[in-house]
Design goal:
Elements: H1 3-17, H2 24-50, H3 64-87, H4 94-115, H5 122-128, H6 131-137, H7 159-178, H8 182-205, H9 218-241, H10 248-272, H11 274-280, H12 285-293, H13 297-303, H14 306-315, H15 318-332, H16 341-359
Helix pairs in contact: 1-14, 1-15, 2-3, 2-16, 3-4, 3-9, 3-16, 4-7, 4-9, 8-9, 9-10, 10-15, 10-16
Length: 367
């Protein structure tokens, strides 16, 4: 058995040991709901909205893995928005769910474009996606005309991202216009736009986090945390925009729930992608932790000795330690008594499904 497969097997064993595997009823419910979300998005949103811009993608000859990825990523965002709102005791809101889905698709598109070896430069992304552009797309005055994101000289690989964000902003503007408490909605809008700008900036900065940087440099982990957790925070702000002002304890606890969900998604994603991140020569939470706990691995990372570095990860404590952090984040949901109890069970089951579907040795898309 090769080392990457043994790493995946070890990760799966650790999720079992930390009780991070969904029960059959939880799994069935999570799979069924995500399939429903994915199909609805594909039929009612993705094909009508993007089909005319990217006709080849939606033809019968389009590669099915691409279509499956769109459904899966969109369904994840849709469900994340839905369960966050349910935690506040409010029913599912189609516009919130759709905005969450489109934002998740935009984030995935930026990440994919930047990760490719011949992909976009950070400057190209920032030219079209920047705080000024976001302010113009989501004006403070809901009656003021908005300006769509700039498409002049738009790189082809940015088209899916810009198109997704345009639809996202359309949903967000509609939610903002419906808000009764203008001061509260305006404050949420400001936080949301700051969060969006910071998320894009961090995503662009991740391509520069090479192993030549000191893993103890606070910019490394700070950038990784921002790039991997701020998207979930933005979905939380989107939900807050759709509800009246909350009691302080409820607002505090929904932010705590968001922090836990974001931490879980970040760490399990990095654990699953550790081999790819090593091959790319860029820091992730996994390799930062390896370098900190096993300092002798830093030289291996910088010289490109991937086999030895993977062996140190396999036989070292990092996979167990990070899985323990995921378990702690998952347990924190139990203390959030101001939120809807039934919805929190849904959140916990959703997290377990994400952990299982991403980390299982033979896991695959079900959406």
């Amino acid at each position: 058995m090769d080392t990457p497969l043994r790493l995946r097997e070890k990760l799966h064993r650790e999720t079992l040991a930390h009780d991070l595997i969904p029960q059959s009823a939880e799994l069935s419910h999570a799979v069924r709901r995500l399939i429903e979300c994915g199909r609805t998005l594909w039929r009612d949103e993705l094909v009508p909205t993007l089909g005319w811009r990217l006709p080849g993608l939606f033809s019968a000859l389009a590669p099915s893995p691409v279509q499956a990825t769109l459904r899966r990523v969109g369904a994840f965002g849709y469900r994340a928005g839905e369960i966050t709102r349910l935690c506040l005791g409010h029913p599912s809101h189609p516009r919130v769910n759709l905005a969450s889905a489109w934002f998740s698709l935009a984030v995935s598109a930026i990440d994919t474009a930047l990760d490719q070896k011949d992909g976009l430069s950070g400057e190209e992304v920032s030219r079209h996606l920047n705080p000024e552009a976001f302010l113009a797309a989501f004006p403070e005055d809901p009656e003021k005309p908005h300006r769509a994101l700039d498409r002049h000289d738009l790189a082809p690989r940015l088209v899916p991202c810009v198109a997704s964000l345009d639809v996202f902003f359309a949903h967000v503007r509609a939610l903002y216009k419906e808000a009764e408490d203008r001061a509260y909605a305006g404050a949420v809008r400001d936080e949301m736009l700051d969060c969006l700008a910071a998320a894009v900036e961090a995503e662009v900065a991740t391509v520069h986090l090479s192993f030549d940087m000191d893993p103890d440099d606070p910019r490394v982990l700070g950038t990784l945390r921002a790039a991997n957790t701020l998207p979930q925070w933005l979905i939380c702000y989107l939900v807050l925009l759709s509800v009246p002002a909350l009691a302080p304890i409820v607002r505090t606890q929904v932010l705590e729930a968001t922090a836990s969900l974001a931490e879980i998604v970040w760490l399990i994603d990095d654990l699953v992608d550790c081999v790819e991140d090593l091959a790319a020569g860029t820091w992730s939470s996994v390799w930062v932790e390896v370098a900190r706990t096993q300092p002798e691995c830093l030289a291996l990372l910088r010289t490109g000795d991937t086999g030895a570095a993977l062996a140190m990860l396999l036989y070292g404590p990092v996979i167990e330690d990070l899985t323990g952090r995921i378990e702690s984040a998952h347990r924190r949901f139990l203390s959030l008594t101001a939120l809807d109890a039934a919805a929190l069970l849904d959140v916990r089951a959703f997290c377990l499904f994400v952990i299982w579907s991403w980390s299982a040795p033979k896991g695959g898309s079900v959406v």
